[in-house]
Amino acid sequence: MMNNSKAFDVAILGTGFSGSVLGSILARHGYKVLLIDEKEHPKFAVGEATIPQTTMMMRAIADRYDVPEIGACSTFEGIHEHVTSHCGVKTNFGFVYQRPGMPQNPKEVTQNIIPHLLVGYDCHWFRQDLDAYLLTVAIKYGAFVRQNTRVEDLVINKEGVYLKTHQGEQYSARYIVDSTGFKSILAKQFNLRESPCRFNTHSRSIFNHFIGVKPYDECADSNSLWGVPQAWHDGTMHHLFAGGWMWVIPFNNHPKSNSNLCSIGVSLDTRDFPKTDITPQQEFDSILAKFPGIALQFENARPVREWISTDRLQYSSERCVGDRFCLTAQAGGTIDALFSRGMANTVDGLYALGDLLLKALEDNDFSAQRFEYFNHLQQRLLDYNDRLVHCSYIAFSDFALWNAWYRVWSFGGLLNVFRIKKMQDQYKETGDLASLNGLNNPSYLGSLCPGSRQYEELFNAAASAVEAVGEGKLSSNVAANKILSLFEQPDFVPSMFEFSSADRRYNCTFDFDEIVKIFAWSKSASPDVQKLCF
Fold first, then answer.
1. Judging by beta carbons within 10 Å of its beta carbon (0-12, 13-18, 19+), is residue 428 exposed, middle or buried?
2. What is the mean pLDDT of the chain?
3. Which domains does the chain carry?
């Protein structure tokens, strides 16, 4: 395989989001990059809802590695100007609790508002357009692409990496990155998958794109019944019920959007909803029949693609790096789409991997030890997300418990927005890339707010309370009250958020006046928060 091969610095398996972003970074810095995919664009992909951590870290990647096209994909406005008009806007996370056979109770809802004045508007990504665009960015900077190409033979040794395709083509590289996802070639070749999977979350999914989905705001006589500050249709909506949840991601919720589609999916705890022989459509219809509060949205809706139905979603790998190779993003493991953290974890990993790989290419040292930080980061991100999601599935059993637990996630995300924004503002003021160094060197890797000891203590205490409910050691009401009491720290938690009050079921609306109040509060906040965020 070494004879007559085409030589590259890095070979990347997979031309989706992760592979194309990394390929763009490496090619932008003058390295020869090979991107191989057994399929071709456009292609369907999940990971369609962004969160501030995802989009802000994309801007950090664009700045750190001088690839402005990646930054253009980080806002609703940038997507529509540079990429596609088929994406929707996202201004909030909406959570609506549903009970079997009952109409929805307007008091059993929570809503998390995205602080767009600080971070801009997030997006609902029509992934087939976005991923195809990112691949063209890699091509623009010089990456060589082979689509509809299957790797039939792969050898990694101390001299290099050697590939042979089903068409008989031969390639060599100094390093290889696997971004192929669940069917990871390297995970299979090196037997990296853990059996059993170490994660506590046990869920499966069915999903599709729909047309004719009614905005949930039209499913009641008056929007004021819910008492939340924003329209459900303006954000990513979640129907919650004991044992599972449904996502509604509209691509058609803005006047600038030319799409008529919504992404619809259901994730179910396999222990409460074991997989059967019925079709995904039949299972979806059974859920609508069970929850009349959800069925209202789908009276005139229909799917437009073939359904995708999974077995258990969760899988893990004992390691994500080795000599001359690594597994990125979903090639290493995955949890669940809840909270849209899969893409956030992906960009966190890419931000770190880019620097490590550029230095390794310069030094010609591709030992696993050089990439151990990347392995540790990815494993911690997965383990943390597993605990977050596992506790959420437990909390779905009781609205009071969910109402308390969701604000732990909400507050951590808010603190992290301020942490990232502080570093990005410093970079804009100084132009010094060292301002961004702290993005991947926090004290608590994987955490929702990885630089705060106080938040880590709050998260651990709250998660332990939820887990005690799952183990039958604590009642839901006792656990909910215990979690709410954790927010009674005025030097750590902004008082205007009223996080300790069960009656406040949404965070601040983040208009200009409220942002001013938050900064005023920061003057009396704990030293931990002041150092972290302000």
1. exposed
2. 94
3. 1-84+125-198+314-394 (3.50.50.60), 202-309 (no CATH), 398-534 (no CATH)
